[in-house]
Each structure stands twice: as C-alpha cells, then as structure tokens.
Specification:
Blueprint lengths: L1 H15 L7 H23 L3 H5 L2 E8 L6 E3 H13 L7 E9 L5 E10 L2 E12 L2 E11 L6 H21 L1
Parallel strand pairs: 1-6
Antiparallel strand pairs: 1-2, 3-4, 4-5, 5-6
Length: 172
C-alpha cells in the first residue's frame, strides 16, 4: 500500500509542476499571443473601450504611471482612468518597437516597448502571465524617456515637487 501511495505522490508532484520547457513552436505561439494582447491593450485605450481595456489585466495587476505617485492596483487604476474613457478620449499609444521574452516553462512573459505618444517617445515594460490558458497583463510600467544630454534640464523641472516627495517617502 505504501508503494502505491508513494508512486501516486511522486506522479502528482511531477504532473502538477509547470517546470517543463516549452518547445520553440510553443514559444513562438506564446510570443505571438502576448504581442496580440499588448496590441489589443493599446487599441482598447485608443477606442476608449473601458471594459475591453481592463479585461486584459490579471486580477492582481499593477499599473505604474509616469508620475512617481502613480502605483495602482487594477481597481484604483480604473477609478483614475474612468473619466478619460467616459470622455471618449483615453490615450492613443502606437508601438514603435517591442521585445517579448518568455520563461522556460511558458507561463510568464516580460516585455519592453517604445511607444509614440502625446508625450513623445515613452517606454512601456511589464509582465504578462498565463491565467487559465489566457495571457493577461500583470504588471505594466509606463515611463517617459529622457535623452541623456537633457537630464539636467529635466531635473530642474522636477526639482521642488520631487524633492518634497523624496522627503515624505524617506520619513516612512
């Protein structure tokens, strides 16, 4: 009886783990699916499709915006975003370049992309997870790019406001 129990236990452990390495064709299909997800994400925002946009996030997703105070869970990001979507003008970001990477087990993807936005070039980066066979965005970070030779000018613009925030954050 113990032999059957241990055989069952070992079988269960190996069958439940997702450490298998995906094939190159599975990897290519996953990368294609993540690319489609991200295109749909940007397209839904451009169409001000609130429901479609937020359906692409995982249930525990985070969205990090360009302002240092913008670190939202999905519910708080919905509250912030809703007026933009209701006005019919959310945001229209066009992908200029995108790189997608996949974990060996094919369950997690991460990406970086350059976007043409009203703020000029921005960088999007994040993580996607496979939930019940469907790719979802679990973490998205939007960053404004700054040319290296212009960083001192930008620091002057950010100065007082962010110095105040730095002091607040240091006190926590």
């Amino acid at each position: 009886m113990k032999v059957i129990y241990y055989a069952f236990l070992i079988f269960s452990v190996f069958s439940c783990t997702s450490n298998k390495i995906v094939s190159s064709s599975q990897k290519a299909e996953a990368e294609k699916s993540v690319n489609t997800l991200l295109n749909s994400f940007h397209s839904a925002a451009a169409r001000a499709d609130f429901t479609g946009y937020f359906s692409l996030f995982s249930k525990n997703a985070r969205f990090i915006g360009t302002d240092a105070t913008e670190n939202w869970n999905v519910d708080s990001f919905k509250i912030f975003s809703e007026p933009y979507f209701k006005s019919g003008k959310a945001w229209d970001f066009k992908t200029l370049q995108r790189n997608i990477y996949l974990s060996d087990n094919g369950q997690v993807a991460w990406f970086d992309e350059l976007l043409d936005t009203w703020m000029k070039i921005c960088r999007g980066s994040g993580t996607c997870v496979l939930e019940n066979g469907v790719w979802k965005i679990s973490h998205y970070v939007l960053s404004v790019t700054v040319p290296n030779d212009k960083i001192r000018e930008i620091m002057k613009v950010k100065g007082a406001q962010e110095d105040s925030l730095i002091n607040i954050l240091k006190q926590k």
